[in-house]
Amino acid sequence: MRHMGSAWLGQKCDAGRAPAERGNEWGQFRYGQHNARFCTQRCLLGLQQRDLLDDACPNVDLHKQGGDGRLHAIDFTTLVQHVKEQLDDNIDRNCMPMGGCGASGAPFKVTCAAYGYTVVGKGMTSCRWRELLREAEVYCFLQQAQGSAVPVFLGAIDLEKTYLLHGAGAIRHMLLMGWGGDPNSSIENMPSCPEFNKEELNREISKSVKKIHSLRVLHEDLRPDNILWNAELRRVLIIDFHWAGLDRRLKRKRMNWAQVRQMCGRAEKD
Known about the structure:
The chain has helices at residues 41-48, 60-63, 76-89, 129-141, 198-214, 248-251, 257-263; strands at residues 21-22, 25-26, 95-97, 105-111, 118-125, 153-165, 169-177, 182-183, 217-218, 227-230, 235-238, 245-246. By secondary structure, it is of the alpha+beta class. The protein has one domain: Phosphorylase Kinase, domain 1 (2-Layer Sandwich). The protein has a 5-stranded antiparallel beta sheet. Strands 8-10-11 form a 3-stranded antiparallel beta sheet. A two-stranded antiparallel sheet has the order 1-2. Strand 3 (95-97) and strand 4 (105-111) form a beta hairpin. Helix 4 (129-141) packs across helix 7 (257-263). The longest helix is centred in the last third of the chain and has 17 residues, at 198-214. It is globular. This is Protein kinase domain-containing protein. It holds the Pfam family Kdo. Residues 93-270 form the Protein kinase domain.
C-alpha cells in the first residue's frame, strides 16, 4: 500500500486544508493566507548552481538583497539552513500546508523570510524518514535532470519542532524543492494551458521518462498524478521517487546515510 499522497509538488497553492494544530495553538495562517508565489524552476536551478537570477521569477527582487543584482546572493545549502533555522524558531512562520495530505505526510508552501525563496516542503513523519532519505538520494542521482525532467531539489531538513497536521500526523522532516506544476490528471481543464494538446503532452512525458532512464533510475510508479505539466518550462516534470529503482551500476555506488545527508544539505546530528 502506498504511504504518501501523490502529486505533492503539483498541488494548487490555495488548496483547502486546515492549518496545523499544535496542542491548543493554530498556526498564523488561521488569520492570514501565505500569498507568496512559488519561485520558478529556472530561479532555483540558478540558485543551485550559484548562477544568474531569473528575472521572470515573481520573487526576484527579494533574491537580490545583499547581492550584485545579477547573481544569487546565497547558495542552495545556505537557503536550506535559513529555512531550517526559521522553522526551528517558529514552525508556523511562512509555512503553510497545501492540502492533499497522505497518511504520513503533507506538502507545505515554505518561504525563506530573509531572501524570499518560496518552495515546496515535502513533509514526513519520523517513521517514514528512511523513505524520505531514499527519495533524496534518487534526486541526487537525477542532478542532470533537475529543472527539465524533475523539479529542482534543494535539500532535506530535520525539524526541531513537530508540526501536527490533521490527517497527516507529526511532521518532523522535509524535502525542499521547486513547485513542479499541475497534475497531468487535471491538465485538460486548466485555464493556464489553453494551448494544451494531448500529442504534445505525450511527447513531453516520453522525453522526461527517457531522461530519467538515461540516468539509470526507474520510477516504478508513473501514475498520472506523479506526472506534472510545468507551464514555465513547457515540460513534463516527474515527481515522487520513494519507490524508484536504481540500475545495478548505481546500486554499486549507493551512498551511506551520512553521504546522502551531506549531498542533500542535511545537518548531521548525533
